[in-house]
Amino acid sequence: MGEAPAFVVDHLENGHSNGVVVKPEYKNTEISVDLGDRTFLIGGNHERNNFSICVQIHDKNSDNRFSPVVLGTGPKPSKGYSAFVLKQGRILVIKKGSTPNDSIWFLEVDTSYVREQRKLLGREVVAWSKGVKGNAEKPIVISGPSGVGKGTLISMLMKEFPSTFGFSVSHTTRSPRSMERDRIHYHFADKSVMEKDIKEGKFLEFASVHGNLYGTSIESVEVVTDSGKRCILDIDVQGARSVRASSLDATFIFVCPPSMKELEDRLRARGTETEEQIQKRLRNAEAEIKEGRSSGIFGLILYNDNLEECYKKLKTILGLDGVDPVNGVEIEGIDLPTEHTVSKLEEKIIVQEAGDAQRSKVVLDLSSLNGGAPGRTRGILVDAIVL
Ligand SMILES: Nc1ncnc2c1ncn2[C@@H]1O[C@H](COP(=O)(O)OP(=O)(O)OP(=O)(O)O)[C@@H](O)[C@H]1O
Ligand SMILES: Nc1nc2c(ncn2[C@@H]2O[C@H](COP(=O)(O)O)[C@@H](O)[C@H]2O)c(=O)[nH]1
To answer: Where is the Guanylate kinase-like domain (predicted)?
Structure first.
């Protein structure tokens, strides 16, 4: 299928008022993007005020204008936008006068992730994904029964490679253990709040595990990827299955204990659960190990018998043998001229500095895009030219 034609950027004169005060500098900055029998109205900040620009949909057939569920953290309001319809149900949005790390965004309106979420939520859905230069390593999903040593292995990895890996801090409704701190080990959440956030599509995955609710918010993954680090998720098998079914491309690792007896000994020695909870976790472990080994979710299975040996194998499969632990991946932002005009030539976007003096030009090559919501859109190749 060919690429849809570039759309027309309309600056709507009147903005929209539904009772929320709009900052004067962001008034009248809404743009409209035509896509089939719908117009996407992007910009202004009448709904979410200063936090993220607003998205509304105008259905041309019914002449109805409504607000979809907007997933992901979107761009902050700006003094102007340009947009282009790309193939595969995405709209490229370029901000004027923004910081390098907030300049390029993709609004997904009909990608497989959006279609999946639409089905799940039973409502119209769009999703924001920030555009970043180059490619980063895939997130790592680590699963395994409780007490097998996932947390221990992840801590070793983060200690040795502090600037390479970042931990996705999950939400849970279970109570904190004595050494656990809110927002470091988990976001300890109220069940009703977490359920509401799940309904609003804020979670990449969630599951009921050993009697409590656990989940990975989209924001938790974004925080890590935005810091330029490779994201590690410590989640149960049900969660791993959901991530596998999502559009997040990840490396899946399952950790097995040497025996059930050893698993039980480790859980007891950890001393964090009551006898009743230990029994529940051990009962669940049998099914988890069976599924972890046979479901095809996990591309890699590690046996955590001797901790040092297991850690060495983990580093080997992550390609970390002989890697300098100090240097992490750095994601650079995309620096655009503050005032600019934008044009599109096939899969290249040309951003030209406005004005008569020596003008700089930035060419964004979108031919190798990958990733996308939930998370970042990667693979933008950038050429900066000073004329
Ligand atoms: N290879 C090993 N040999 C002996 N003890 C180990 C080994 N790996 C981890 N342990 C110990 O086992 C206990 C459980 O480990 P850890 O807390 O990392 O498990 P986990 O898989 O993260 O559990 P949960 O899913 O409940 O969070 C800890 O006390 C840890 O020190
Ligand atoms: N599906 C998810 N599972 C998660 C998440 N965070 C943790 N977990 C799993 O829960 C059990 C129990 O953890 P504990 O801290 O109470 O011992 C463990 O297997 C974790 O992997 C999550 O966000 N989603």
So the answer is: 137-319
**How many Cα atoms occupy the beta-carbon half-sphere of 282 within 13 Å?**
17
Peptide bond into 374 cis (omega under 30): yes
Q: How far is CA 135 from CA 72, 93, 368, in A?
A: 20, 20, 10
> Residue 384's pLDDT is what?
74
Q: CB-side exposure of 351: number of CA atoms within 13 Å?
A: 26
The residues lining ligand 1, judged by C-beta closer than 6 Å to any ligand atom, are 144, 146-152, 266, 269-270, 304, 307, 310
Beta carbons within 8 Å of 316's beta carbon, 6+ residues apart: none
Identify the weakest region by mean pLDDT among 18-22, 83-87, 106-110, 269-273.
Answer: 18-22
Residue of 160, 119, 163, 210 lying closest to 327 (CA atoms): 163
> Would strands 360-365 and 348-353 be described as parallel, antiparallel, or unpaired?
antiparallel
What's the rounded Cα separation, in Å, for the pair 123 and 117? Answer: 8
Q: Could you tell me the distance, in angstroms and rounded to a whole number, from the CA of residue 117 to the centre of ligand 2?
A: 23
Pick from 57, 93, 63: nearest CA to 75: 93
